[in-house]
Structure formats: C-alpha cells, structure tokens
Automatic annotation (TrEMBL):
Keywords: Glycoprotein, Hydrolase, Membrane, Metal-binding, Signal, Transmembrane, Transmembrane helix, Zinc. It holds the Pfam family Phosphodiest. The chain crosses the membrane at residues 432-453. It is a single-pass membrane protein. It is found in: Membrane. InterPro entries: Alkaline_phosphatase_core_sf (IPR017850), Phosphodiest/P_Trfase (IPR002591). This is Ectonucleotide pyrophosphatase/phosphodiesterase family member 5. It comes from Loxodonta africana (African elephant). Residues 1-19 form the signal peptide. The keyword Glycoprotein applies. The keyword Transmembrane applies. Belongs to the nucleotide pyrophosphatase/phosphodiesterase family. One of its GO terms (cellular component) is membrane. Its cofactor is Zn(2+).
Amino acid sequence: NMTSKLLWASFILATLTFATPLSLHPDQQKVLLVSFDGFRWDYLYKVPTPHFHYVMKYGVHVKQVTNIFITKTYPNFYTLVTGLFAESHGIVSNDMFDPILNKSFSLDHMNIYDSEFWEEATPIWITNQRAGHTSGAAMWPGTDVKIHKSFPTHYMPYNESVSFEDRVDKIIEWFTSKEPINLGLLYWEDPDDMGHHLGPDSPLMGPVISDIDNKLGYLIKMLKKANLWNTLNLIITSDHGMTQCSENRIIELDQYLDKDHYILIDQSPVAAILPKEGKFDEVYEALAHAHPNLTVYKKEEIPERWHYRHNDRIQPIIAVADEGWYILQNKSDDFLLGSHGYDNALPEMHPMFLAHGPAFRNNFTKESMNSTDLYPLLCHLLNITAMPHNGSFQNVQDLLNSATPRTTPYMKSTTFLHGSIKPKEYEQEESYAYFIGVSLGSIIVIVFFVIFIKHLIHSQIPDLQDMQAEIAQPLLHA
Ligand SMILES: *[C@@H]1O[C@H](CO)[C@@H](O)[C@H](O)[C@H]1NC(C)=O
Ligand SMILES: *[C@@H]1O[C@H](CO)[C@@H](O)[C@H](O)[C@H]1NC(C)=O
Ligand SMILES: *[C@@H]1O[C@H](CO)[C@@H](O)[C@H](O)[C@H]1NC(C)=O
Ligand SMILES: *[C@@H]1O[C@H](CO)[C@@H](O)[C@H](O)[C@H]1NC(C)=O
Ligand SMILES: *[C@@H]1O[C@H](CO)[C@@H](O)[C@H](O)[C@H]1NC(C)=O
Ligand SMILES: *[C@@H]1O[C@H](CO)[C@@H](O)[C@H](O)[C@H]1NC(C)=O
Ligand SMILES: *[C@@H]1O[C@H](CO)[C@@H](O)[C@H](O)[C@H]1NC(C)=O
Ligand SMILES: *[C@@H]1O[C@H](CO)[C@@H](O)[C@H](O)[C@H]1NC(C)=O
Ligand SMILES: [Zn+2]
C-alpha cells in the first residue's frame, strides 16, 4: 500500500542522507608523511615496538629500502619529496660549497636558508599547492625555507625544542580545519640524535626506540580521536640508518695531507675535498693509498650507481670511509659513536618504511623498494602531476589496494550497511568502523521510527500535524 511505499522511500532517503558524508570525497585523498630521523630498518625488532607492528599488521611494510648516496639527512629528505638523486636535486650533503654561487650551506650552523641551494628541484608541497591543494609541515627539513618563492601553506619554523606532541597537534589541526590540508609532513629528530651519541649497538638505544614507539602511539591515538585514522594515508619512514663507530677506527687526514693544500667541505664518512689551486694531483696522490679503509675518487670516477657526479656542489675529490670508520682532520675534532652517510648499498644505512590507510593494502609485506619511488607514489595519492624524477611508480604500485584506485571512492562505509560487523579479534582497528556502523544503524532506526510514528500520527490524528512537525524536526537534524 501507499504507506509502506512511503516508508521504504523514507528509509532509503534517510540511509542516503546519513551515508553520504561517510563516503569520503574521493578527490580528497589525504596523506601524512612522517619521518623519524635515523630510524634504521631493524630497530623495529630491537625492542618491542607494538605501535609500529600495529601499523604493519593493518597496513604495508617494506623490508628493505634503498635510500640515496650520500646517506645523510638533508640529501635523503630532499629525495623523499622530489624523487631525485642528490646530483639532480642539488642538496648533495649536509655541508656544501657551491663554487658557482660562491656560497656555503651548513647544517651545523643552520646555514641552510639560502633558497638557491634548494631550487634545482621543486618539492612536493609546492607542486601540491600549484595544483590548488594545501600543505602543512611540522619541522620537515626544508619546509621553512622559501623555495621558488613559496612556503608550505602552513608550516612551523624549525625549532628542535618543540615537542613531538605539539607537532602532532598542529598537523591534526591543519587536517581538520575548515580548509583542510591534503598533505602533511611531520618530522622528529630521534632516534638519530641519540644514535649518534650512544652508537646503535648500545643497550641504551632500547629505551630510545621504545620512546619513539610511544610517540607513534600518540600520533595514532590523536588520528583516531580526530576520525582521521581510517581516512588518511599515513606513511612512516626515515632518511637513513646508523652504524656503530669506534675510536679504534679513525682515519686522520692530517697524517696524510698538508692542511694548506685543501679545504675540507664535508668531513665524515664522505670527505669532500676541494684542493687549493695547483694542488689537485698532490692531494689526490697523497690520499689515494693512504688508508686501507678509505676509498678515494676523482669526481669523474665516482661509481655510476651512486648517481653522485653531475653537480657543481660535488667536490673534485671525495674520500669514502668503509662502514664504521670515521674520518677526522685531526684527532682533536669531534667524534661520535654512531654515524651514517656511507655507501647506500649497506643494509645498516637503510631506513624503515610502513604505511596505513584506505589506499594501502592490509597486512602486506614487500621485499624492497627505492626511496626515490616514494615521490611518484605520493603524487599518485595526491592526484597531482609529478615533476621529472628518478623513481618508478610501477615499482611500488603493489603497495596499494588495487580495489581502491584513486578514481574510485573509498567504499568502506557501505560495507557495514550489509551488516559485516567484525568480531572482537579485529581489535581497535575495526572499533572505529564498528562505532560508525552502530551509530549509523541507530540513527537509521531512530529516523525510521520517527517517520513511522509520523505516518501513524498523520493518518490517525491529522490535527496534530503542526505540532508533530516541530517534534520531529530536531530529531531529524540531530
Ligand atoms: C584528479 O585531478 C584532475 C585534475 O587534475 C581532476 O580532473 C580529477 O577529477 C581528479 N581525480 C580525483 C579522483 O580527484
Ligand atoms: C667568494 O666569497 C668570499 C667571501 O665569502 C670572497 O672573499 C671571495 O672573494 C669570493 N670569491 C669570488 C671568486 O667571488
Ligand atoms: C622554541 O620552542 C620552545 C618550546 O616551545 C620555546 O620555548 C622557544 O621560545 C622556541 N624558540 C624560538 C626561537 O621560537
Ligand atoms: C678495512 O680494511 C681492511 C684491510 O683492507 C679490511 O680487511 C676490512 O674489511 C676493512 N673494513 C671494512 C669495514 O670494510
Ligand atoms: C686540529 O684542527 C683544528 C682545526 O681543525 C686546529 O684548531 C687544531 O689546532 C688542530 N690540532 C692539532 C693537534 O693539529
Ligand atoms: C598477516 O599475514 C600473515 C602472512 O602473511 C598471516 O600469517 C597473519 O595471520 C596475517 N595477520 C592478520 C592480522 O591478518
Ligand atoms: C631500484 O632502482 C633500480 C634502477 O635505478 C632498479 O634497477 C631496481 O630494480 C629498483 N629496485 C626496486 C626494488 O624496485
Ligand atoms: C634523474 O631525473 C632527472 C630529472 O628527470 C634527470 O635529469 C636525470 O638524468 C635522472 N638521473 C638518472 C641517473 O637517470
Ligand atoms: Zn644523523
């Protein structure tokens, strides 16, 4: 009869009304890229890391990530957001000299704000913004530098004293604001800092890694609280690993070279040497066979696989230490127990890589990837056109949920309508979906009853029509 048809129509309408905001805008894929500096891939197994393992279990994990040479912080961070090798993005080290610009760049003195050093490439936040989106960065290296006349839409000026929690809170604020960002970049200094001071083999690194795991726990908690956990694509990675050094493995340049014959642009483990005028041969010869654990290259002889030749900021001679060896000019210079920067083929130089979100597969492990591949993956998720780069989207496409290509909407919200509420073993992961399912169900039932009662009242006591409309209205809008 008429009433039941109307009821069904109302039911379907109500369902659609309440389901619509849940079928998340497909064109609004959100990405949060997080880096814990110097988090070596195997730190995941050094002590219990339940939060990292939680992400792995419900997301993807890449066991071996080949980062770029040199395996230092700034070169690798710029690779993550450009997909380029160091020779192509121009940030060839943490300490550089550009002979054309006649300018220096130095992380030690935070002398990194000269735009010209960064402008051989265009980082992803700028490309994202040029495509009409907005980005937010919490201390990610380079995000407080003006590059091609722009900054990220939102960013925090670098200040290492700002807590992880404050950085997370800012990122969440930007993702949930009226004009939400689609790309967030979050950086934390550890375990790199402690890794340098303690050495990665120190038992004291255990608590340092546990602390990072707790920080990830805080991030997950806050993402869940903001209802972002199941809707944004979270990628957690790092720039490089760390290896143990020792005072017994020091290469002292003063023993082989006359200090007046060269300028040491970058020290260890890849000494960047600028010989003074007319001193090239003398410096090269003196160093070439100086130490069995030091390999010396003329710029044009640097191995092809490092893609570390074609840039003016790469000095005429580089001397690369074997893993665990430390280059000093003289023994009174600073020495650290942990170091990185070595050959990027060495497993200890490799970072970890995990991801979770609607675009990523569930409980999926991949053997290996190149860190240059992250950039095209990010561009795909953000639906922006990638700039020329050295990565390959195809090589990492298998990380993605093939059932959810970027052009189709995120469908999860429809599944609970079919009553596929998961049992308890799905733990917290499903609790958000469960909660929505239950809420949605309850709302539908309430709406159904309201409409049902409305019909009863309507058919039986037409006089109360006005009054009943007032009662029903607030409920329908709840
Ligand atoms: C991707 O971006 C293009 C414009 O560059 C737009 O036409 C298209 O709708 C977007 N696709 C999605 C799924 O957002
Ligand atoms: C390079 O800059 C230094 C000062 O930083 C200056 O003394 C020197 O003359 C400059 N060299 C050239 C070739 O301009
Ligand atoms: C850096 O952050 C700390 C902690 O929030 C704050 O006390 C300090 O004033 C900040 N420094 C600068 C230069 O903003
Ligand atoms: C250092 O050099 C010695 C002698 O060539 C070699 O046996 C050793 O393996 C080297 N150390 C490393 C870490 O490569
Ligand atoms: C070591 O080098 C520093 C500067 O690099 C210099 O001040 C110091 O005198 C040197 N020490 C020795 C023993 O040569
Ligand atoms: C994840 O996958 C592994 C095998 O790859 C399987 O043994 C494990 O039970 C899976 N875990 C979950 C929670 O699905
Ligand atoms: C990494 O890139 C190189 C080419 O630069 C390629 O030969 C190799 O297969 C890539 N590795 C992975 C795991 O995709
Ligand atoms: C890396 O990509 C840049 C930009 O497309 C290109 O100029 C460069 O030749 C590439 N490097 C290699 C080794 O393919
Ligand atoms: Zn470091």
